[in-house]
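In response to the reviewer comment on reproducibility (Comment 2.3), we provide here a single inverse folding case reported in full, input and output, so that an independent group could reproduce the run without further information from us. The structure tokens appear first.
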């Protein structure tokens, strides 16, 4: 029998915020980026066969300044007219449409009210975090660039678990990227692929967490 859930750990971008797909899609449309050029760069830097030490890996571990990353990314992109992309402020523009998902912050509050420990584990792309809010909402916050580790490597999950003071088998990790969930499973954690607040809430309930339905009590 599985251990009762003592802790739930959440990714940030695409889980505690609006979906990454919509963030990127809005940026591509607004700035006239050729979507194929962005997809190709992400396959090369984030795919299963991506070499260690590529610009995304170095950015996420805090080893590459955001301005330098923007130059690497701009060099891989083109506009829909085939033109060059200005690297200045590129990442800021990419993430300008990101905003918190209030339903997910509500879920975190409900879990804490049930004495479930909650953590945040995020790979940083140099974009800003609402840090005061996160520190208030979560028991422990791990940002990859601050600890020089990144998902899906085992060490960052172990660091987060140690900070929360829970065993892997008593924890659940929620992320929108399958490779990060695979890393959590290798660390011994249970994993939920996030597609939206109702689905994540339902899967946590299936794991035995008695989350109240606030809509029915309103």
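Designed residues, in position order:
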């Amino acid at each position: 029998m599985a251990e009762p859930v003592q802790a739930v750990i959440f990714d940030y971008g695409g889980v505690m915020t609006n979906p990454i797909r919509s963030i990127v899609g809005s940026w591509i449309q607004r700035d006239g980026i050729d979507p194929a050029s962005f997809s190709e760069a992400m396959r090369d830097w984030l795919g299963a066969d991506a070499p260690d030490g590529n610009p995304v890996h170095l950015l996420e571990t805090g080893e590459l300044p955001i301005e330098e990353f923007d130059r690497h990314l701009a060099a891989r992109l083109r506009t829909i007219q085939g033109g060059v992309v200005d690297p200045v402020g590129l990442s800021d523009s990419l993430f300008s449409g990101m905003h918190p998902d209030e339903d997910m912050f509500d879920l975190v509050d409900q879990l804490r009210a049930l004495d479930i420990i909650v953590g945040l584990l995020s790979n940083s792309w140099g974009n800003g975090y609402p840090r005061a809010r996160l520190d208030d909402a979560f028991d422990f916050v791990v940002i990859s660039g601050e600890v020089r580790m990144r998902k899906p490597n085992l060490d960052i999950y172990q660091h987060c678990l140690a900070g929360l003071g829970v065993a892997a088998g008593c924890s659940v990790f929620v992320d929108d990227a399958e490779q990060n969930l695979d890393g959590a499973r290798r660390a011994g954690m249970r994993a939920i692929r996030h597609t939206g607040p109702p689905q994540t809430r339902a899967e946590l309930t299936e794991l035995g967490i008695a989350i109240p339905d606030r809509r029915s009590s309103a």
